[in-house]
Structures are given as C-alpha cells and as structure tokens.
DNA sequence: GGTTATTGATACGGGCGCCA
DNA sequence: TGGCGCCCGTATCAATAACC
C-alpha cells in the first residue's frame, strides 16, 4: 500500500471506528507503529484535524465533521454537474445563484487544463430560459434557514410583503414544503397569523428567522402530505399536425385521443388551466375548446374584451 | 549502479491515569 | 504522592524499494 493510500485509509478508519491507538491502526493496516506515527505526522501537516490523546487510554481521533473529498469526478460527470449548476442559477435557486461563479470555478478546477476551455465553449452556448416570472433578490441566508427549519421541524418568523395591499406583515410559519413552480420558489406552510395554510413566494420574504419552537400543524391539515393540485378535464379539438407539435408539453402529460377524424378530439386532464386558455387563444385555427363550457365562456369574454379595446 | 524515499526496529523522554 | 503501565513524540540507524 502506498503512503498516500495508507493516509487516506487512516482517515477512513478513524472516521468509522472512532478513537484508536497507533498500535491498533498499525495492526489494521499491517505496518509498524512507527510508520503510523509518520503517517499521522504527514496528515497533521496537511491540516487534517486529528485529535491526539496522550497517556493511558490515549489514541487518535478525527474531527467527526471532517469532510473527506473522496469522489473523483470524470469530465463527463463534471460537465453534468455544471449543467445542473447552470440550471440552478437560471432557476434562481437561493444560494446557488449567489455562489454560482465560485462553484463553477471549483468544478472547472477539477478537470484537466485542456478540458476546461472546451467545457467553457459549450457552456457559452448552453442557455436556459425560464420566463414565467422573474423573481427579485432573496434575503441573505434564506436557503440555509429554510433547509434548517425543514430538517429540524422548527417554526420560522417571516416578514412578508403582500403586493396587492403593499404591506409588510410579520408572521410565524410552520414550513411544510419548499417548491419550484412556474419560474418561482415558494415556501408552503401553516401560517399561525392567518391560522391557515399559506404559500409564500420566496422573493417576497423580506426577512426570515429560525425559531426554537417546534412546527405545529392542525389535525385537518395532516392531509398536506397527500395534497395535490386538483386536475380538471378538458376536451379539445386539435389539428392533427398541431397535436404532434404539442403532445409532449407539460399540460398534455395526461391526454388521450377520444375521436380520430379530420381533427383529433383529445381529453386532457391537467392543472394547467392557464396553459389551455393560452393554447386556445394563440392557436385559434388549430385548437378549439369543446368542454368545459366555463372555459368556452371565459375565452369568449376575453375575445370580446379585446375586440372592444382594439376596435 | 547511485540516489532518494520509504519502512522497520529500537531506544528514550515525557504526559496521563490508575492505584496503593 | 510516587510507582507503574500505556501511549505519543522524537531520534537514529539499517534495510528495502523506487526512480533515474
């Protein structure tokens, strides 16, 4: 076993087994105690946080928080990580957006010198467009606080901006879920001020503080876990060739052709009602809403309002 | 084959805990 | 409090392996 391999092995052994004497480590690695002393010395020189206990019942320990960078990534894996990092930046994942450059450089630093420019050329040509909403800045440490609150099941205290009333309110929240939806990040939880479930857009949280008190959810909110957006059924008449274009879109995930003639008559089950309306408005010659009637009426009203404005 | 690095064996000093 | 055992720290020397 090479010295560097043995040094790694000592770290792993101490991480796994806790405190051991040089004699015990030597026995495990089948080398002399003296060799272990030299390895321990070498580890100390490279700032591995070893704890030494001298005397009776002495030995060596390693700081339990010491992180072992044991994963050697291939260039392909690094590329994938940087793509994910870029997605994280474009999705404005709190923290990732802020630390993007430092993280990107760390990953680039892990690949060969000739691999780095190649990857940069690719990244220059890699673009992600998230155009649903464009969230503002997040308050500092929002991500860390949310992660901690969800991990430890502790309440948070928020200062939340409500644009409709142009007001700031302070409220205690028991966080339940952290989600990304239609271009924005949201914290869902039980609001103790409103005594109800609320969804908080992250960029409207103006301050956040982790509280010591445990989360509380009323019994009738236990169904939180199984909650899902209610899906509705829509019947659309769609041009056959246009169907081929849109059939893999999100809102088409749960669709079936119920009549196959000059046009397809398609039943779609989705919670993306806005997308159905937008689809019908943008493509009147290719898409016609048949059901529900409420959507047809809604479309008529939009068209009527538009025709009055743009006479 | 010479040089350098690594390893093993041995010895000694000193810290620490236990115990009479 | 001092002896004892256990262990870490350091030094030295010789043997061996790796490298040029």
UniProtKB/TrEMBL annotation:
The keyword Transcription regulation applies. SMART domains: HTH_DEOR. It comes from the Bacteria. The keyword Transmembrane does not apply. Residues 3-62 form the HTH deoR-type domain. Keywords: Transcription, Transcription regulation. InterPro entries: CBASS_pafABC_assoc_protein (IPR051534), DeoR_HTH (IPR001034), HTH_11 (IPR013196), PafC-like (IPR028349), WH-like_DNA-bd_sf (IPR036388), WH_DNA-bd_sf (IPR036390), WYL_dom (IPR026881). One of its GO terms (molecular function) is DNA-binding transcription factor activity. This is WYL domain-containing protein. It comes from Anaerocolumna sedimenticola. The lineage of its organism: Bacteria, Bacillati, Bacillota, Clostridia, Lachnospirales.
